Protein: RNA polymerase sigma factor
Amino acid sequence: MEYSDSELMAMTAKGDDGAYGLLVQRHYQAIYGAALKMLKDKFLAEEITQKVFLQAYRAAGRYEPRAKLRTWLYTILRRLVLNQFRKKEIQSSPLVTENGEDKDIATYQSAMSPLDQLVKQEQMEWIEKIIDGLPPRQRLAVILKSYEDLSYDEIARILGVSIPATKSLLFRARETLRVAFQKWEASSSSNRKD
Structure:
């Protein structure tokens, strides 16, 4: 029988560690992936992800399914990540996945010429650098929308703001990215002419 997240949380609240294990198995990759994109550090992302699930376990008895469980887990993640940013300045590094790069990018790049691959790699590094420089709330909103493909409503719940405020955060972040990308294109095309 396939249990819903709400049923698994209710079972966890009653001490069913097997139900808790199923919840972790079901949502771990999504939470870890978002943590890694935010923190740019595999070990710190792993630690924060474990804290998310530990807090979820401890709060199982108080959980009320007003939204999707994953939205609630992202809300816990947001608090932990923002606390981490407050504790210390996190140094950004290039995004690293388990294989060292994003699979979709690798597939796309295999059909490109070496020069085009280099330009695309520079472009992606530039975009990652700009995303890393965004204020934490804008950065998390961009990651949840662009990488996790969450709705405005889900992002608003996670960030604890209204839907219009979420749209505003994303608009400002996208505007920053658009301006930075235009600068990158201008400098990149002038470098190629030289």
Observations:
- The chain has two domains: 1-90, 102-194.
